[in-house]
């Protein structure tokens, strides 16, 4: 089944195919149009209306420890990205969220293998602060002090943003996009845009110094298609730096950050998008509308862990249930039903979404402490998949990864199913009433799905990336 495209994403595409002037309007002093930096915020809000899921917070939050962060940002620190002084041909810009623990160090599973293969000629800069454990890849620095300084300078500066213009543009875009967008949501998007626009020139100035010192030829930037960092993407491309984005999670026809209409191919808007998108495999490449060049390279950490996974017949009687945030009560009801249907010698590992970890006891109080159910706290989900006979979830990327790890995969049916998984893993599981279907799938003969792991996860990822990067670094 071809995956459907949600109403909110269709609205983005229709607006960009129409190409009204409002998409190209810039704020005074800005180097890029406003549209790319509010685009994802609109998509998150429309996703909430489409599926009833909570959108990501639209307004940039100001942490309560702002003064402490500012003090640290102004003091010399070896972990600060401004201390990247040696020239390196490749620079990885990442969120810092795609990590796991290994040997007492923090390793980035998204780009760590790629960085290792370019040792001495690359560095990693992450937006999050460095954690308490040392980075596994030593030339890893944090951009958080840079962002903190830029935010402080923008507050101290007398340079103002025409807030009326921002609110007018955001309001006009909302009217053109979707009548379901509320006034409070428009205000939230506009407030976030004002905050971002005020900080942008200071962030560009700070980041320019990093580029001056490192002088990369290629930058691999996580989330480069999302907007929010449009001024930085445009800056790098204006310097002749090739900007590529490594895929980090699920992408498909409903994902607003990877599907674009005709207007995004115009020079002013194209300058805010990466030159190239590196996907996990052809399955992902074929499911999106992106103006960048799309190249499948694979996912090296997944590939490495899959090679070391236990043979299915030798795995313990364990099944992994993964949350996707959309409906905790529904997922909990299914997990409890599955526990009742399985024999006592089976263990269910429940893996909350990273955003839920601090609230597991409140969100899933009905199954915390239930015998035969254990909360999965492993930092690397592949370690859990490597020992699980099956994996169950709604729309999580972990389902697709489970296929590569040799698990039997079951997708729970909900409002997202036709947009995110379709029939990739066979008929969807209709909640708690179908718990017995999962039990039969785990204990009986396995019927393979129509999709192959190789379509989703291109083999020989490190070799593929090595060939790609050498071609891009060639004179």
Describe the structure in your own words.
By secondary structure, this protein is α/β, with parallel strands linked by helices. The protein has two domains: about 5-65 and about 145-300 and about 460-475, no CATH class; about 305-455, 3-Layer(aba) Sandwich (Rossmann fold). The protein contains 19 helices and 14 strands. It has helices at about 5-20, 35-50, 65-75, 110-115, 145-155, 165-175, 185-215, 230-240, 265-270, 280-285, 300-305, 330-340, 360-365, 380-385, 395-405, 415-420, 435-445, 455, 460-475; strands spanning about 90-95, 100, 105-110, 120-125, 140, 220, 240-245, 275-280, 295, 320, 345-350, 375, 390-395, 410. The strands form three sheets. A seven-stranded parallel β-sheet has the order 5-4-1-6-7-8-9. Helix 1 runs antiparallel to helix 2, helix 3 crosses helix 5 (about 145-155) and helix 7 (about 185-215) packs parallel to helix 8 (about 230-240). The longest helix is centred in the middle third of the chain and has 32 residues, at about 185-215.
Look at the structure and give the mean pLDDT: 91
Largest sheet, described in full?
Answer: 7 strands, parallel
Widest sheet: strand ordering = 5-4-1-6-7-8-9
Percent helix, as a range, is 40-55%
Rounded Rg: 23 Å
**Tally of DSSP β-strands:** 14
Keywords:
Rossmann fold; globular; 5-stranded parallel sheet; 7-stranded parallel sheet; single chain; 40% helix; alpha/beta; 475 residues
């Amino acid at each position: 089944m071809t995956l459907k495209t949600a109403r909110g994403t269709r609205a983005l595409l229709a607006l960009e195919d129409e190409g009204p002037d409002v998409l190209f309007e810039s704020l005074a002093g800005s180097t890029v149009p406003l549209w790319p930096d509010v685009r994802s915020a609109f998509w998150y809000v429309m996703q909430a209306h489409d599926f009833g899921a909570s959108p990501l917070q639209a307004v940039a939050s100001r942490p309560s420890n702002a003064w402490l962060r500012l003090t640290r940002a102004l003091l010399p620190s070896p972990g600060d990205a401004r201390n990247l002084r040696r020239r390196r041909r490749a620079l990885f810009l990442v969120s810092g969220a795609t990590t796991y623990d290994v040997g007492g160090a923090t390793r980035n599973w998204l780009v760590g293998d790629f960085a290792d293969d370019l040792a001495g000629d690359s560095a990693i800069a992450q937006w999050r602060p460095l954690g308490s454990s040392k980075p596994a890849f030593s030339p890893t620095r944090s951009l958080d002090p840079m962002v903190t300084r830029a935010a402080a300078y923008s507050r101290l500066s007398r340079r103002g943003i025409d807030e009326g213009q921002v609110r007018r543009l955001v309001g006009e875009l909302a009217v053109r996009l979707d009548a379901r967008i509320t006034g409070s949501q428009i205000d939230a998007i506009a407030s976030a845009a004002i905050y971002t626009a005020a900080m942008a020139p200071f962030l560009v100035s700070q980041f320019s110094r990093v580029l001056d010192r490192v002088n990369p030829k290629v930058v691999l930037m996580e989330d480069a298609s999302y907007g929010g960092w449009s001024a930085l993407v445009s800056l790098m491309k204006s310097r002749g730096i090739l900007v590529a984005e490594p895929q980090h999670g699920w992408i498909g026809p409903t994902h607003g950050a990877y599907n674009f209409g005709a207007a995004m191919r115009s020079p002013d808007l194209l300058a805010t998008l990466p030159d190239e998108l590196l996907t996990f495999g052809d399955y992902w490449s074929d499911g999106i509308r992106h103006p960048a060049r799309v190249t499948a390279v694979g996912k090296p950490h997944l590939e490495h862990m899959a090679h070391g996974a236990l043979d299915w017949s030798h795995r313990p009687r364990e099944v992994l249930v993964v949350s996707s945030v959309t409906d905790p009560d529904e997922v909990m009801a299914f997990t409890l039903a599955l526990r009742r249907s399985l024999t006592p010698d089976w263990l269910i590992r429940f893996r909350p979404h990273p955003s839920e970890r601090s609230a597991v006891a409140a969100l899933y109080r009905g199954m915390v402490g239930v015998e035969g159910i254990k909360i999965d706290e492993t930092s690397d989900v592949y370690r859990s998949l490597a020992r699980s006979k099956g994996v169950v979830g709604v729309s999580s990327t972990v389902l697709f990864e489970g296929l590569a790890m040799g698990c039997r995969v079951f997708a729970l049916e909900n409002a997202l199913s036709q947009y995110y998984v379709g029939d990739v893993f066979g008929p969807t599981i209709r909640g708690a009433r179908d718990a017995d279907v999962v039990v039969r799938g785990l204990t009986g003969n396995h019927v393979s799905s129509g999709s192959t792991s190789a379509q989703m996860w291109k083999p020989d990822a490190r070799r593929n990336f090595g060939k790609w990067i050498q071609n891009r670094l060639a004179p």
